[in-house]
């Protein structure tokens, strides 16, 4: 493991990082901006963290919110399981008459959307202000 990885990952005891224990660093924060719930993601969305991501967004939907923003700008990495969660969330919220918008300006994350064609499925904005129409 390189110096960069050891500096960017929180430790969990005996100098091990979360990644070394089989879990990537990931956290969510939900806040309301102009009456719209914004789910902010930080770290990595992969097989080990995607369930937490899905649970957080489903809780927002189940609370009655129908228009949701997911801010991906805090992500360092997202694999196909993260994309799968986004597609599942889109299906769930669409069935309930809602919508989802994404905020993402990171080229590495946007590339995943372009390669898979999901950039044509999701409304993706380069910053939160534009996403909220401000």
Q: How are the SSEs placed, and which strands pair?
A:
Elements: H1 3-8, E1 26-33, E2 36-45, H2 50-62, E3 67-78, H3 80-95, E4 99-103, H4 107-116, E5 123-125, H5 128-131
Parallel strand pairs: 2-3, 3-4, 4-5
Antiparallel strand pairs: 1-2
Concise overview:
The chain has 134 residues and is α/β, with parallel strands linked by helices. Helix content is 37%, strand content 28%.
Description:
Helix content is 37%, strand content 28%. It is of the alpha/beta class and 134 residues long. The protein has a single domain (25-131), classed as Transcription Regulator spoIIAA (2-Layer Sandwich), CATH 3.30.750.24. The termini are far apart. The relative contact order is 0.14.
Instruction: Please give the oligomerization state of what you see.
Output: single chain
Measured on Cα atoms, how large is the radius of gyration?
15 Å
Q: What is the terminal separation in angstroms? A: 43 Å
User: What class, by secondary structure content?
Assistant: alpha/beta
Shape: globular
What would the average pLDDT be, to the nearest integer?
Answer: 87
Helix proportion range: 25-40%
Q: What is the second-level CATH architecture?
A: 2-Layer Sandwich
């Amino acid at each position: 493991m390189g110096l960069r990885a050891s500096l960017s990952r929180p430790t969990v005891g005996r100098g091990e990082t979360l990644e070394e224990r089989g879990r990537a660093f990931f956290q969510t924060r939900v806040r309301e901006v102009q009456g719209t719930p914004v789910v902010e993601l930080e770290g990595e969305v992969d097989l080990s963290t995607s369930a937490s991501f899905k649970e957080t967004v489903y809780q927002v939907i189940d609370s009655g919110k129908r228009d949701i923003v997911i801010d991906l700008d805090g992500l360092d990495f997202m694999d196909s399981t993260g994309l799968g969660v986004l597609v599942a969330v889109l299906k769930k919220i669409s069935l309930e008459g809602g919508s989802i918008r994404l905020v993402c300006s990171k080229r590495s994350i946007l590339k995943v959307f372009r390669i898979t064609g999901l950039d044509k499925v999701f409304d993706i904005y380069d910053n939160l202000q534009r996403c909220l129409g401000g």
